[in-house]
Amino acid sequence: MSTPEADLAGWAAAPFTAGGYTHDVYRKGEGPGVILIPEIPGIHPGVLALGNHLVDHGFTVALPSLFGIPGRPVTAGYALATMTRACVAREFAAFATNRQRPVSVFLRALARDLNAATPGKGVGVIGQCFTGGFALAAAVDDSVLAPVLSQPSLPIPLTPAQRRNAGVSDPELNAVADRAAAEGLCALGLRFSEDRLSPRERFQTLKERLGDAFEVIEINSGPGNEHGFSRMAHSVLTEELREIDGHPAYEARKRVVEFLTQRLA
């Protein structure tokens, strides 16, 4: 069975400007709002399938197109070219530790906008891979009630300090920890056990700071694992997902939907 994929059918796009940046945002669905931030190389067919799945479960989904060409399938060359451009973009500060990434201001404004247009008291935010930590940065804003960090990969983990870094600035992490303690904010994190792009040390840092407010789903991708994941397995909710009961990524997607439903209903 292959990875779920979809196209742009039914998605309506409009530009959104905040924090000095303008990006097209694709929207679809009805119900509580969820921002689905695409992974590298952009809003590819796997991301669109995840968006449709959320729509089918009663959410309004907003997909900001931060990079890449919406709807374009993933190829190695396309992914590499997009990654190269994204890594040098000031908006994402791909290698920085303890720095607020400019894109976080854009995403917080988008969260407030989506919250105002949808039912409920707040919205969810799902970040993936390159954008995984952006979900946590968005949760500084009170409009975000359910951040999901799927294989967060920034800062690029080249040094021990980068591997340990939570992907947000200290003031942002402090603000999220304060919300967790005072308001009961919770976050969900997903990763494969052997994923060097999303290192275990990063989740350890988040667990130390957020405690029980940070729920971790770690899927075994070590040698001889039951489901045949390679040590390179990375994208929990897209590339590695198979819609088979008991498949760990499929079960992780179920938990994401359950988490969003519990926090936003």
Question: What spatial order of strands do you see in the largest sheet?
Answer: 1-2-4-3-5-6-7-8
Regions with little confidence, pLDDT below 50 for 5+ residues: none
Q: Quote the beta fraction.
A: 15-25%
**Oligomeric category:** single chain
CATH superfamily membership: Alpha/Beta hydrolase fold, catalytic domain
The total count of strands amounts to 8
- Helix fraction by DSSP (H/I, runs of at least 4): 25-40%
Number of domains: 1
Structural class: alpha/beta
**From the 3D coordinates, which CATH architecture would you assign?**
3-Layer(aba) Sandwich
Q: Could you tell me the radius of gyration in angstroms?
A: 17 Å
How far the N terminus sits from the C terminus, by CA atoms, comes to: 32 Å
CATH class: Alpha Beta
- Counting H and I runs of at least 4 residues, what is the number of helices? 8
Tags for this entry?
265 residues, alpha/beta, Rossmann fold, eight-stranded mixed β-sheet, 8 helices, 35% helix, Dienelactone hydrolase, AB_hydrolase_fold, hydrolase activity
